[in-house]
């Protein structure tokens, strides 16, 4: 099977973020399973992917860099938004045209059996290129509220043209059906099976215990300051505990706010920003609790990896995907607010046996997302949409 995987909504293929990681891993996995794979993105010429593709993957950077639409189109778009007019987004249409032109120059459409799209920019390109002749699968990498409900009526109509739409969590299927008129399938992200030597030993006595956070430093979604405040409410009681947080700084003002709060409230210097880690499993292996204060997620890879290493986690009951990945009182705790988040951290910090028990349950829970299971589901979906198109 010849598969083209399109990802045009990222700022750069050199990013360390989750979308880029899944994009590369998917291309590599399909190659290993016998498919011919085209991984297609748009970036500045010569930019190197952060995550390595297998040599067998055909890597195609359209090389247009940031596409700048005419100012008039941007003004028209903003006026339409302000007046709530259901008009064609000229900026989207302009970028789609440029991407399609570059795509056709580098790729023979007749050699593609199916297209997989990573976000709405890719959907517009794939729909125009396929013209109904090549099956198109769209992916939702975040919550339905964040990525589908936020689309305009015209964008939802465009998204409904795809052959199938994939979401990450079972409850997202019915939510997506409220906005899209196409087939919806649930296929989760892959969670690698962690070897025993990398599983966290939570029963071990330590001089210093660690709570870990891994995620972007931003105030809208990841919200690390909430967990920092929650930890510092009781940090003086737990002098042998530290909170380490990792991730790229995407909101510098928010990072300054975090730094100022730590300077005032972290009297024992127990909260430490560690930058970006290239070895998250090693970081998680040495931890004891995973804090995950996100407002929403699609399928949180950092949380899943922490669970697979055997760490209990604390998240929010109101956070889509987080509230399904964490089994409350089984693999961790779901908090109702910041004060409750602090209480749930204390329950775990105060009880080693509880950490051990929940950590074991968390690791067991992640087995349902093993590579063989998830990639098998993708194989079945690809075969289904390709054969359906051939039979039309």
Quick overview of this protein structure:
With 392 residues, the protein is of the alpha/beta class. The chain contains 15 helices and 13 strands.
Largest sheet: 7 strands, parallel
Question: Percent of residues in beta strands?
Answer: 5-15%
Total count of domains: 2
**CATH topology call of the largest domain:** Rossmann fold
The low-pLDDT segments are none
CATH architecture of the largest domain: 3-Layer(aba) Sandwich
Number of strands: 13
Quickly give the structural class.
alpha/beta
The shape, in one word, is globular
The helix tally amounts to 15
Overall CATH class of the largest domain: Alpha Beta
Radius of gyration: 22 Å
Give the % helix.
Answer: 40-55%
**Averaged pLDDT, please?**
91
> Could you state the order of secondary-structure elements as H and E?
EHEEHHEHEHHEHEEHEHEHEHEHEHHH
Strands of the widest sheet, in order across it, are 3-2-1-4-5-6-7
CATH superfamily of the largest domain: Glycogen Phosphorylase B
């Amino acid at each position: 099977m010849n598969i083209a995987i399109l990802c045009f909504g990222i700022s750069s293929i050199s990013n360390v973020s989750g979308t880029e990681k899944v994009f590369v891993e998917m291309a590599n996995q399909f190659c290993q399973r016998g498919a011919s794979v085209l991984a297609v993105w748009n970036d500045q010429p010569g930019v190197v992917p952060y995550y390595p593709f297998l040599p067998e993957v055909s890597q195609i950077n359209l090389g247009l860099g940031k596409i700048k639409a005419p100012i008039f189109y941007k003004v028209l778009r903003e006026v339409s938004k302000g007046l709530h007019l259901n008009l064609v987004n000229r900026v989207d249409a302009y970028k789609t045209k440029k991407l399609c032109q570059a795509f056709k120059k580098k790729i023979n459409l007749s050699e593609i059996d199916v297209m997989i799209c990573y976000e709405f920019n890719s959907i517009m390109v794939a729909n125009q290129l396929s013209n109904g002749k090549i099956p198109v699968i769209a992916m939702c990498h975040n919550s339905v509220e964040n990525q589908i409900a936020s689309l305009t009526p015209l964008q939802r109509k465009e998204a409904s043209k795809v052959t199938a739409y994939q979401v990450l969590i079972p409850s997202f299927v019915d939510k997506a059906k409220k906005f899209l008129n196409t087939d919806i399938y649930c296929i989760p992200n892959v969670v690698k099976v962690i070897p025993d030597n990398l599983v966290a030993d939570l029963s071990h006595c330590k001089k210093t215990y660690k709570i870990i956070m891994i995620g972007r430093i931003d105030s809208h979604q990841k919200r690390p300051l909430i967990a920092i405040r929650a930890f510092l409410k009781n940090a003086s009681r737990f002098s042998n505990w530290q909170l380490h947080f990792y991730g790229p700084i995407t909101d510098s003002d928010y990072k300054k706010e975090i730094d100022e709060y730590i300077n005032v409230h972290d009297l024992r210097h127990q909260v430490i920003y560690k930058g970006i880690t290239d070895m998250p499993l090693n970081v998680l292996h040495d931890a004891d609790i995973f804090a995950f204060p996100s407002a929403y997620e699609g399928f949180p890879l950092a949380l899943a990896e922490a669970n697979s290493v055997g760490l209990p986690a604390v998240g929010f009951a109101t956070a889509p995907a987080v509230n399904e990945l964490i089994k409350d009182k089984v693999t961790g705790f779901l908090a109702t607010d910041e004060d409750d988040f602090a209480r749930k951290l204390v329950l775990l910090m105060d009880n080693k046996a509880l950490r051990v028990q929940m950590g074991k349950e968390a690791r067991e829970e992640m087995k349902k997302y093993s590579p063989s299971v998830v990639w098998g589901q993708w194989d079945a979906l690809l075969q289904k949409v390709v054969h359906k198109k051939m039979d039309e």
